[in-house]
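Researcher: I'm preparing a figure for a lab meeting and need a structural model of a single chain. I don't have an experimental structure, so a prediction will have to do for now. The sequence is pasted below. Please return the structure as tokens so I can convert it later.
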Amino acid sequence: MSIRLRFTVALTLIGVVLFGTYAVLAYRGERADLRTATEREIRIIGRALETSIGNALRDRQNGDVDETLATLEQLEPTVDIHVHGVDGGPIAHSAGAANDGQVEQLVARAQTQRRELVELDDARSRFVFAAPITDDNGALLGAMALVRPTSDLEADLGRTRWRLIAVVVAFVAVTMVAGLVLGTLYVSRPVASMLGGIRDVRRDNFRAPVQVRRHDEIGDVIDEFNAMVAAIAAARGRADAETEARLRLERGLQGADKMITIGQLSAGLAHEIGSPLQVLIGRASTLADHGDPEVRRQGTILLAQSERIARIVEQLLSFGRRKAATITTCNLVEPVRHVIELLAGEARRRGIVLQVEHDDGDHRIEADSDQLQQVVLNLVNNALAATRTGGTITCRVTTTGDHVQLTVKDTGTGIPADVQPRLFEPFFTTRAHAGGTGLGLAVVRAITDEHGGSIEVTSVAGEGAEFRASFPRRQRRT
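Model: Understood. Here is the structure written out token by token.
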């Protein structure tokens, strides 16, 4: 059972008890008042008749008694009058009044006790008044009795009873309706709104406060709930920010550790492999010029692979010991055009369209022009490797607020989703079979990070890839 219904039922029951008690007391009071008023009325009539009939009996004028009874019968036709003599026998009675044992007993008692008696006969719904009749000296002349029906009293009490019942029923109905309506407005709806807010919080939605404005206890509860949700949301935001910062720090430490490892590895390789490799390349060159075709073929293969090893060592050295950036103001469009001009011949040979686009914004940034050219070169080389004949590679430079963005988009084979998170890791490559070393994108990430920028990729397997490198216009001064 809802709070609204419980409150309404409890309020109704309390009202029923109060109004019911009042109705019972009011009914009893009304009945007592009516009976008191009727008893007073019958006593007044009886005393008036006692005097009139006493005078007639004293003067032995029985005709006056009959006339008095006839007159009263016209005035009060419902009242029956009985007149008895000293011996208790009936002298006269009003028309329609019959002998009644109860009346005769009450008359006898009134004569014996010499006082007025009034009895209420609930069984027969009537009042019976009896009084002795005496002369001026107190001598007993007889007795009289009045019988008054209480049917009019019962009718009045019945109307009163039904009015009280109607009031109680109306109170119950009004209380139930008012309780349900007010309970809905002041309890059910605010509570339902707060429950909706609780469900939102349970679904991790902390941005939808309960929109109820009340200046009462429920309003205070809702305000406190909204404040609590705001505090939880702020704490959640701080926790998320701290988690993200920790993850960035961990990634940075991992990258630094890899850079240290690569630097140590490249230094060792340069020392241990450099000299023997140069000897190997010299001997391979000699074999490549040998007169025997088979020896020449084997020498050519050996020379090509030796030169590949030399290039890898050179890339390691350039990656692990990259020189500090020389920051100048340069236009990002220029290194892009230089790279496109450099690779245009290779692109035409492979049937791939290379194009440069840029908006009308200011593309000047503070950066190392040579390193920017290396970024463009690595991105376009990767795009060329992934694009088939007839494809297109677009280099677009745009301005976005206080950053300038380079976008390299191709129509190649795309990058699987499970591979994308590892694209910028050193030595991770999907083209190992084609001689890829996995250092190109790592160099791109290192350069963009050094310039305070960012690099991200969007790709769907089979639909090409899009790399976006963003650089700030101004470098932070330390």
